[in-house]
Amino acid sequence: MPWLWGLSLGVLLPAVAWALLASPADWQQGETVRIMYVHVPMAWLAMAGYSGLALASVLALVWKHPLADLAARELSPIGAVATALCLATGSLWGRPMWGTWWAWDARMTSVLVLFFLWVGHAALTRAFEDEERGARAGAILALVGVVNLPVVKFSVDWWNTLHQPASVARLAAPGMHVSMLGPLLACATGFSLLFATLVLARVRAAVMERRVEALELARAREADRAPGLAVPA
Amino acid sequence: MSATTTSGPTSSGPRRGLGVAASRRRRRMLVLLLCALGIGAAAALALTAFRDNLVFFRSPSDIVSMAAPDGRAFRLGGLVEPGSVVREGAEARFRVTDGAHAVAVTYRGVLPDLFREGQGVVTLGRMRPDGTFAASEVLARHDETYMPPEVMDALKRSGHWNPEQGAAPPAREWNTMTPAETPATRTGG
């Protein structure tokens, strides 16, 4: 784990410095364009993370892999944070460029729905006394929510929106100059590594928690079986 | 797992148990696939039904062809027609066009920084009886091209793109260009 933290920060910090200090301003947006270097990676992570959540949910529902439930449970708070950051930075960006903090266009509304799905999943998996039932309900919610992913992605193509169409993740060549595309991809890599590190750290902690619980249970059983060793209260 | 351990003491037990587990897995996968198919179809139907209602704004052509909603506020979007902007004190008059039709807009207030001729805008307001659009809010749209100002200047100088006149040329032509080059020297060289 320490090397993973080192790698994430080792990539992220220079990438952010590159994006904020050493990349050019935009011809029409000026310095405000630098919000993109956080906003776009967060949007990609919100979507990629949700695909991961859906994959974990399939593994959990069909193959009943215990680690899949755990991964889904530990993934959703981080995904919710990434989506919230995407919305917040988008709002900060929209105010100076478009002239509004928020508009109910298809892109923004569908990302808000994605945020509610993340938060809903995090809450639902923890809402049951029986953890297994919570995990099941969460997995079903996560899979139903997959419908929203193509809506988020293609909202800017299917309907007219205030949000502009994709610059990078499209079939044509990226509509972004290399001097800005470089730092953007570096930031995306750095934030993705940090995202993965955070999720792995949470999963590891959760696995250890279960192990501690199991050991304590075993010890209590042993004490029950050998009453001579247990100190009567 | 549980199926293998509870499958009984017969000699064919473990193998039969594995088969039961596999068929359960297959059944769960099938149920999941059917659900996905159902939900996907429902979503696709809903989205196609909403196709026309989910638009954030209407274009000038929509307004000409569908008769503008009378007295009701709606959003009109398009490009600011080059040469149409007139500012008189706090009031701005301009035309919003989609290439085919144009609608005259009046607006009193602060225009966003990105507002200029040729720029995409979304305005909120109502149609007046005289056919002009009285806007109470003007939002600027911007396109999906990002480039340093120097590259933009080079494109403008060489006459390859004037953002007031039209959309950006294909990204391939400029997204690796240095300010000293022009698309012509690149394709020629």
From TrEMBL, chain A:
It comes from the Bacteria. GO terms for molecular function: heme binding; heme transmembrane transporter activity. It is found in: Cell inner membrane; Membrane. One of its GO terms (biological process) is cytochrome complex assembly. The chain crosses the membrane at residues 43-63, 75-94, 106-125, 137-156, 176-201. Residues 16-163 form the Cytochrome c assembly protein domain. Keywords: Cell inner membrane, Cell membrane, Cytochrome c-type biogenesis, Membrane, Transmembrane, Transmembrane helix, Transport. Its main location: membrane. One of its GO terms (cellular component) is plasma membrane. It is a multi-pass membrane protein. The keyword Membrane applies. It holds the Pfam family Cytochrom_C_asm. Belongs to the CcmC/CycZ/HelC family. NCBIfam families: ccmC (TIGR01191). Required for the export of heme to the periplasm for the biogenesis of c-type cytochromes. PANTHER family: CYTOCHROME B_B6 PROTEIN-RELATED, HEME EXPORTER PROTEIN C. This is Heme exporter protein C. It comes from Muricoccus nepalensis. The lineage of its organism: Bacteria, Pseudomonadati, Pseudomonadota, Alphaproteobacteria, Acetobacterales. The gene is ccmC.
UniProtKB/TrEMBL annotation, chain B:
Residues 1-20, 159-189 are annotated as: Disordered. One of its GO terms (biological process) is protein-heme linkage. Residues 1-28 are cytoplasmic. Residues 50-189 are extracellular. Heme binds at residues 142, 146. SUPFAM superfamilies: Heme chaperone CcmE (SSF82093). It holds the Pfam family CcmE. One of its GO terms (molecular function) is metal ion binding. One of its GO terms (cellular component) is plasma membrane. It is found in: Cell membrane; Membrane. Keywords: Cell membrane, Cytochrome c-type biogenesis, Heme, Iron, Membrane, Metal-binding, Signal-anchor, Transmembrane, Transmembrane helix. InterPro entries: CcmE, CcmE-like_sf, NA-bd_OB-fold. It is a single-pass type II membrane protein. Heme chaperone required for the biogenesis of c-type cytochromes. Transiently binds heme delivered by CcmC and transfers the heme to apo-cytochromes in a process facilitated by CcmF and CcmH. Belongs to the CcmE/CycJ family. This is Cytochrome c-type biogenesis protein CcmE. It comes from Muricoccus nepalensis. The lineage of its organism: Bacteria, Pseudomonadati, Pseudomonadota, Alphaproteobacteria, Acetobacterales.
